[in-house]
Amino acid sequence: MTGMEEFIDRLDYPMYVVTAVAGPERAGCLVGFASQCSIDPVRFMVWLSTANRTYRVACSAEYLAVHLLDRTQYDLAEHFGGRTGDEVDKFAGVAWHEGPAGTALLDAARAWFVGRVVARVEGGDHEGFLLDPADAAVEPSPWQPFRLSEGQSIEAGHPAEDA
């Protein structure tokens, strides 16, 4: 194992479900590569695998919705991370509603924000979507974000090798 692999193995960052809507198409996936990247103005970068359907729909979307799940929401994380939108409708059987700018918001998400896509950046097998936050909500009750360590057993619907 290289030093970089050892470094990465020690990370336990929050995971998100990102949803995209473009025309009649809806898509969503579990995302591990995302972070605030600017304070003033506030900006958030979400990295989507170029192998998955969410990426393809996001390329035509003006806004994306970023959902932060609670650590107890493994089933929802697995639903959006362990299936591919190329084969199933990930929104079937999941409570959601239309949010700001026509986005798809998951009813069960403990926190979410909607951001306008202001730039895209190539990054290997993922592409970064730089978001300018437009609206957000956070459930006030105490909870902890779903983290990478809680999702280790989720087998990706679209492995990175498919990119």
Structure notes:
- With 163 residues, the chain is mainly beta.
- The chain has three helices and nine strands.
- A seven-stranded antiparallel sheet has the order 2-1-5-8-9-4-3. Strands 6-7 form a two-stranded antiparallel sheet.
- A hairpin with a 4-residue loop joins strand 3 and strand 4 (43-49).
- The longest helix is centred in the middle third of the chain and has 8 residues, at 74-81.
- The chain is globular, with a radius of gyration of 15 Å.
- The relative contact order is 0.24.
Which keywords apply here?
single chain; 163 residues; mainly beta; 3 helices; 9 strands
Helix content: 10-25%
- Taken from the alpha-carbon principal axes, the silhouette is globular
Mean pLDDT reading: 91
SS strand fraction: 35-45%
Please give the number of β-strands: 9
Briefly note the structural class of the backbone: mainly beta
| Biggest sheet strand line-up | 2-1-5-8-9-4-3
Low-confidence stretches: none
Tally of DSSP helical segments: 3
Largest sheet: 7 strands, antiparallel
Radius of gyration: 15 Å
The SSE string, one letter per element, is HEEEEHEHEEEE
Calculate the terminal CA-CA distance, rounded to whole Å.
23 Å
Gist?
The chain is mainly β. It has three helices and nine strands. It is globular.
Helices and strands in order, then pairings?
Elements: H1 3-9, E1 16-22, E2 25-31, E3 34-38, E4 43-49, H2 53-58, E5 63-68, H3 74-81, E6 96-98, E7 104-106, E8 111-122, E9 126-138
